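Annual report, structural modelling task.

Input specification for the tetradecanoyl-COA complex:
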Amino acid sequence: MPISINRNILRLLRVGSNSTLAITKPRHRFSAAAFVSARHMSDDSHKMDSTSFAKNLFRGQVEVEHVFPFPNVLSEEQTETLEALVDPVEKFFTEVNDATKNDEQCVIPDKIMNALGEMGAFGLQVPQEFNGLGLNNTQYARLVEIVGAHDLGIGIALGAHQSIGFKGILLFGTPEQKQKYLPTLATGEKIAAFCLTEPSSGSDAGSIRSKAVLSPDGKHYILNANKIWISNGGVADLFTVFAQVPVKDKNGIEQNQVTAFIVERAFTGVTSGPPEKKMGINCSNTAEVFFDDVKVPVENVISGPGAGFKVAMNILNNGRFGMAAALSGTMRAAIKQAIEHASQREQFGQKIHEYGMIQEKLARMAMLHYVTESMAYMVSANMDRGSKDFQIEAAISKVFGSEAAWNVVDEAIQICGGMGFMRSTGLERVLRDLRIFRIFEGTNDILRLFVALTGIQYAGASLKEVQTALRHPANNLGLLFEAGAKKITRIVGISQQSLAEHVHPELLTAASLTRIAAEDFGVSVESLLIRYGKNIIGEQFLLHRLGNAAIDIYAMIVVLSRATRALNENHPSAKYEERMCNVWCSEASDRVAAYLTSVRSSQQTGNFRRMAQISSELIKAGELVHGHPLGF
Ligand code: MYA
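The model returned the following structure:
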């Protein structure tokens, strides 16, 4: 089934007669102001440059200053505030909350909800003037890590409330909306939910059918919506609801456009279904929510009629790093359990950790955790430093973190053997809880395409700039010289800003592998753009591999940055981090090379074609096409 992702790119990419690219406008208008940073505006105001490391990667550029040194954005005061919160939250989850019981009873007890409210857990990032704790993204990450280590079900209840439920008010609300709603949401007196998904609209968020029309007196909208799988849906008092609204465009033609509404349960016509029975995150409530002829005051529109799709995307972009943070907590806890078991359990006369197979598992689990944690704090710090262009990195952190956590907890169960399979060990619940993380908040498949296509579009825009500049060379010497230099540096294999100057000497080999991977990646993107033009949008076998390569290279750069900091600052774990960084970069560079080879290989193209055929044969048959070996 074709996925309608990035229909917009279709409008933007045009293939010229000789397959050169022309791109009519930058796709991410919403964040354009951010990615034209002051640095770039000063001398390069003719072009759109991004502060995103990942985006620049698609041009084959390693923009070192976006990722080095590994950021630490907390002031002394912010560190003190955070330290004062960490212990009580940790204590609460180890001594008061019972995750097993919550899972079995499929509910978070009132006393736990009340205690969370007293700790300020429902308003972590809400400014203090509205009763919140006023934490920044990095502080938030540190606290949700603790939640993720102990009870992912509670994590979802808290996350659905503040990471997406009322985030629209926090990010885009008017002063009146903030004043009216945030104080009771921050204390947990009122609970919020995010209502985007519908029976016929999951990944294709732009296709929602819910509708709202302005009343004849212009005072309110009449909202009709049916939203499914809504986290907190059955318990929320306030909903951020997305619906199509007829809006006149600049030519006066009316078109349906997604609009975001703040809807109170108290408004007449809001009802919800029973809690869904799920595989995991059982204590969090998931329910269908219905809005029947609900009168929503016009003051409750977020960011104006028609701005809802961007509001939804930005809410999701803004919260995704939180998943990586929470899941790094989950991994830390599971790895501890695996280590405890491996260091005590004896088989064949030896502790099992003395066997190479267990050693490899533990080392890989630690590396996956190290990468996820490094990504979470790199993204949170960049957000705290004011970057608005972090959506690719945030999506990467969500994809990587959710797959890493699944892998780590699965391996923790494997190390614990039969014990791991027993409910009493607690890992079984965690594995069930984790499964949804690869599906919600943007499936990992959609997010891989999002990473690849957003990056490709950015790279395509730069080709277009060069193309335009070539038409007026005298006025664009700077741009042409720069483009030429970048091309030459790729060909001769020297990056403009050598990574070697930024990494610790012990990591030079890893840095060199990362630089080569980045350059190879840029060349591959360019050649795919030239080969496929706008048709690249439909080449999901290729986009998948390109997305994977981007994720791996981003992982390489964040661990290089973090391990460099550890070595430069003589952290007690510096040598251990150096080893992890070296192993990670060496293996990741092999994977990147394999992904990039496969996007260029005709043998692989043949395999992609064959797989597409196999799939359509299966769809046609409605079942497996091959018979049983016994013939019946
Ligand atoms: S909530 C439901 C989650 N649903 C999704 O995530 C939906 C996934 N789908 C999409 O994201 C979009 O539909 C995609 C694009 C990406 C597929 N940032 O034509 P287009 C702009 C900024 O490409 P489409 C849940 O699961 C774009 O530039 N802008 O769009 C709850 C263009 O703008 P312009 C973006 O092909 C789970 C315009 O939009 C972005 O239709 C509970 C149209 O673009 C973007 N990302 O689709 C979790 N994308 O026209 C609880 C597009 O100006 C939380 N655009 O050029 C847990 C938290 C963790 C724990 C915490 C513990 C405390």
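The longest strand covers residues 220-231.
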